[in-house]
Amino acid sequence: MLTIVIIVVAALVIAAAAAFFFLGPERFGIGRGHALKRRFGPEYDRAVAEHNGDTKAAERALDERVKQHGSLTARPLGPEAHERYTAQWSDIERQFVDSPQEALVAADALLAHLVKDRGFPGEQFEEQVSALSVHHAGHVHGYRNTHAAARGESGTEDMRQALIDARGFFDALVTEKPADADRRGPRSSQSRSQGHSRWQLGQPQTKGSNT
Q1: 107-113 long-range CB contacts below 8 Å, 24 or more apart?
Q2: Going by fewer Cβ within 10 Å, which terminus of the chain is more open, N or C?
Q3: What is the mean pLDDT of each run of 10 residues along the chain (211 residues)?
Q4: DSSP track, 93-104
Q5: Which one, of 110, 117, 201, lies nearest residue 159 by Cα?
Q6: Diameter of the chain measured on Cα atoms
């Protein structure tokens, strides 16, 4: 009797596997689209919009991004580069108070250099974004928004939001543990976080306050 039960169960497993293979995972509610949505988040919706609502075309495009850039391993930043980028970003945030447009242009340029230093490919902006979206889907909009704001006419509030979004992208790239940072990395990250909490974009500090 036990042997018969084992045979029946095995046959059912084989039948289910065959159905999954031939019908495709979409029939079972676990299609590739679900995995892409989890991986890309807002970038998935953006891709669908760019393809006029054609989810299949959007998913093919996102799959292509993963094939091209999924195996990329970002280069770590050395401690000196880590400190230099952090200091430059602080300067940009201070500059925004008096010259928001110039600050956005500087932020866009700084992010472009940081992206290259981390080893993301692409000479053109869209190529960079394509690679970045595979590994930083939750923050790449900050790079995109800053790039657009630096090249167009935007109101002060839009520019402020663009730089805030860019800060999230900057942190996602620069706070990943740099090479030989066991001693210096945690201290630098804490200092940067405290400095940012004391200063709000668009709100100049009182004279003599620390930055």
Answers
A1: 107/146, 107/150, 107/163, 107/166, 108/146, 108/147, 108/150, 108/151, 110/85, 110/170, 111/143, 111/146, 111/147, 111/166, 111/169, 111/170, 111/173
A2: N
A3: 61 53 44 81 86 90 89 89 96 94 95 93 85 91 92 81 94 67 35 39 44 39
A4: HHHHHH-HHHHH
A5: 201
A6: 88
Q: How many residues appear in the chain?
A: 211
- Rounded distance, CA 197 to CA 49, Å? 35
Identity at 140, one-letter amino acid code: V
Question: Residue 67 has which token pair?
Answer: 């094939």
Exposure string over 136-174, b if 16+ CB within 10 A, otherwise e: bbebbbbbbbbbebbeeebeeebbbbbbbbbbebbbbbb
Q: Which residues pair with 203 in a beta bridge?
A: 200
Tokens 């053109």 — which residue? Answer: 124
